[in-house]
Every structure is written in structure tokens, then in C-alpha cells.
Amino acid sequence: GTIARFAGQFLRTLGAFFRKPGLGLLLLFLLFYRFAEAQLVKLSAPFLMDPAGAGGLGLSTQQVGFIYGTVGVIALTAGGILGGVLVAAHGLKRWLWPMVSAMNLPNAVYLALAFWTPSQASWIGAAVALEQFGYGFGFTAYLMYMIRIARGPHQTAHYALCTGFMALGMMLPGMFSGWLEEQLGYVMFFAWVLLATVPSYVVCA
CA 38, 204, 23 angle in degrees (round to 5)? Predict the structure, then answer.
């Protein structure tokens, strides 16, 4: 009895999610908005730590920890806060295009780092901070979109389903990013990441 009721409620909740109008486009947005970022994030730390002979920047574990764990987190948080304030003030529609651009265009700093391979940790930290700020700012649009999709009588469950598709959208591109970098090298891989931003703009359109 209890199990049957639970199963029935689960199936009704799931069915209500998959009957949402325009679901195909909604899911494409969830899967492809971060298509480029999902690949970048898998290779960013290895790139910073790999020796110069392998095309990396040769930073120590401590340096990478500080750049990502301190500088990057501060920049990410600042971008997210600014994004939240602006969406609350003007709405998501007004800020969607600036946000998707803020998330994708700063990925170019990794191409620049791979091309010039600077040795100064300050320059590398500034580049990572810029990328993380843009990611935090741009990710605000994604979160707000998930909230909009989830609206309705099963809001909590539908938001959880959205987070599942969000995880899938990060996992699938990340699965081949390491292999792709091995084939292309860091410079061409980060050039590919910039090209891979196109699906993000397509699903926003």
C-alpha cells in the first residue's frame, strides 16, 4: 500500500514534468547552456599544473589551490551575487544574453594562457578570476531558468529533476574532454572550447 502510493505519486510527478510545454527546448537549454564550460572545467586544473613540456603552466599544487580555492571562489561568488541583483532588478530576459556571453567569452583567457604560457602566478590568477567571475555571473541565468521550469504544483521535485539534467549536461561533455585535449594539445583544445560556446548561444536564442 505505502510503496504503491509512493510509486504512484512519483510517476505522477515525473509525468507532470515531462508534459511541460516546450519540454524539448527546455531540456536542450539545460544540457547545452554550459557545454563549453563543462569541458573547460575538467582540464583547467591539469593545465595549470602540467609542466611546460606538456603545454601546461607548471604551477604547484599550493599555487593552484590558492588561485582556485581563494581567488577563484571569491570571483565566482562576486559574479553570482551581481547576477542575482541584476536579475532581481530587471528580470532574466534582459540579462540572458549578457550572462551567456559573460560565461563563455572569458574562456578565451585560457587560450591566451596556453599560447603565451606566462610564469607569473599573478597574471594566471587574474585570468582565472576573470573566467570564474564570468562563470558566476552567467550561471545565475541557468539557476533562474531552472526555477522557472520547476514552477507549479511539484516545484521541489521538478527542480530536483532539473538539477539532474544539469549534472548530465556537465558530465557528458566532460567525458570526452580529456581525450580531446590529448589529441589536440592545450592550445587547440582551448580554441575548441571557444567554438563549443556556439550551442550555448543557440539554446538561448
Answer: 90
Q: What's the grid cell of residue 4?
A: 504503491
The single-letter code of the amino acid at 175 is M
Residue of 157, 186, 145 whose CA lies nearest to 31: 145
Kindly report, residue by residue over 137-191, the tens digit of the pLDDT. 999 999 999 999 998 888 999 999 999 999 999 999 999 999 999 999 999 999 9
Residue type, 36: A
H-helix or E-strand spanning residue 30: helix 23-32
CA dihedral of residues 168, 198, 64, 177 (deg, nearest 10): 60
Contact at 8 Å (CB) between 67 and 128? yes
The answer to whether 61 touches 54, Cβ cutoff 8 Å, is: no
Q: HSE of 159 in the Cβ direction (CA atoms, 13 Å)?
A: 11
